[in-house]
Design goal:
The chain has 180 residues and is of the alpha/beta class. It has helices at 2-6, 21-32, 99-114, 137-144, 155-162, 170-179, and strands at 15-18, 40-43, 50-54, 62-66, 85-89, 118-122, 150-151. The radius of gyration is 17 Å and the shape is globular.
Length: 180
């Protein structure tokens, strides 16, 4: 969104932040970049979501994530009027989108498709201790992918969602692509 706004493309962000200093910082940084904040709501019910990324030398990245206000995001908060492209990032980190076998996620994508909106979906690694680990991702992918125009998962995103533990290689990438 920031790259699009910097390129002069009218960009809206929809989300929820907490009524806390981190939420104020996020709103301020987005506003400085010219991003429309009309659909960024502030809640007193939860703190602002954050992720800390640790990148020690010679090791893979580690993410520490707190869902915070994102835990209640269902997609109904989005006003799709006038939207050309909907990019939805990280459903595994948005637990309310996954309720009822990911029905809120499916509903949002179906509504966007019904309006002729191009849809883009980026995933995230599924934490085995999270609510997202209880989701039958193969079934969810089967339901939602007909409504996704652009999908940008990593191999780690897919293997964690699909419960695949083998090491990544070209054959596994092809298998995951088929399953997706």
């Amino acid at each position: 969104g920031l790259a699009l706004a910097a390129a002069g493309v009218p960009t809206h962000v929809c989300g929820c932040v907490g009524d806390d200093p981190l939420g104020e910082i996020i709103r301020g940084l987005l506003a400085e970049q010219g991003v429309d904040l009309e659909e960024v709501t502030t809640t007193t019910e939860a703190a602002t979501s954050y992720t800390i990324v640790l990148q020690p030398p010679s090791h893979d990245r580690t993410f520490w994530h707190h869902a915070g206000a994102n835990a209640v995001f269902t997609g109904r908060e989005i006003d799709l009027d006038g939207v050309d492209i909907l990019h939805l990032g990280y459903p595994p980190l948005l637990p309310a989108l996954l309720d009822d076998d990911a029905s809120p996620l499916l509903n949002l994508l179906q509504e966007a498709r019904g309006r002729g909106i191009t849809t883009s979906l980026d995933l995230a690694v599924v934490d085995p201790r999270s609510k997202a680990a209880d989701v039958n991702w193969q079934r969810v992918f089967t339901k939602i992918m007909p409504y996704v125009d652009i999908a940008t998962p990593s191999i780690d995103d897919l293997t964690s969602a699909l419960g695949i533990t083998q090491a990544a290689d070209d054959d596994l990438v092809e298998e995951c692509a088929r399953r997706l």
